[in-house]
Design a protein that fits this description.
Elements lengths: L2 H22 L3 H9 L3 E12 L9 E10 L4 E9 L5 E14 L2 E10 L11 E11 L3 E8 L9 E11 L1
Antiparallel strand pairs: 1-2, 1-8, 2-3, 3-4, 4-5, 5-6, 6-7, 7-8
Helix pairs in contact: 1-2
Length: 168
């Protein structure tokens, strides 16, 4: 197995373990069940990003493949890969924490890690905290994220991610 893929699986295992531990509250079976039987599974085909720096020649269309694994109305695991704004392949792994709700809208943040950005940690994994608003219908949804600019490492923007519910 490639070292990059091993790291991704290791991060996923650690994230699942921490979610299970956080939800356990004394009942391991209930916590394990919430991870293994998601409330919903969403499939996405990457992102479209409107960058704040229009003159940098950045890639706005960021095709890829990802999954959101909703544990409940507040928490969801997410993982995937995409062609990033620097025209490199990136992977991501994280957890949505969306505590505020109003009708079809949710707000909060995604906490996780990304790789593949050449000026950020030499293309290796780095942590991220990204503000997020999501709207979810019966089958379709849209995540909207505000990507912060990190001087000389990451270019910020507003990112849109269309998603389709595949289960249940």
């Amino acid at each position: 197995m490639k070292p990059r893929l091993q790291k991704l699986w290791g991060l996923l295992f650690c994230l699942l373990a921490s979610v299970t531990t956080a939800q356990a509250s004394g009942d391991f079976e209930q916590a394990f069940s919430s991870v293994m039987k998601p409330q919903a599974v969403w499939l996405n085909a990457g992102f479209y990003t409107l960058h704040f720096d229009h003159d940098k020649g950045l890639r706005n269309a960021n095709p890829g493949l990802g999954l959101d694994w909703a544990l409940n109305d507040t928490y969801a695991l997410t993982a995937g890969g995409f062609k990033n704004s620097d025209n490199q392949h990136s992977n991501y792994l994280g957890m949505y924490v969306m505590p505020w709700k109003w009708h079809m809208f949710k707000a909060g943040a995604v906490v996780g890690a990304f790789d593949g950005y050449p000026r950020a940690n030499q293309g290796g994994w780095f942590p991220a905290l990204i503000p997020m608003v999501s709207v979810e219908g019966e089958r379709w949804g849209l995540n909207t994220a505000i990507i912060p600019t990190v001087k000389d490492k990451l270019y910020g923007g507003i990112s849109f991610q269309l998603k389709y519910k595949i289960s249940p």
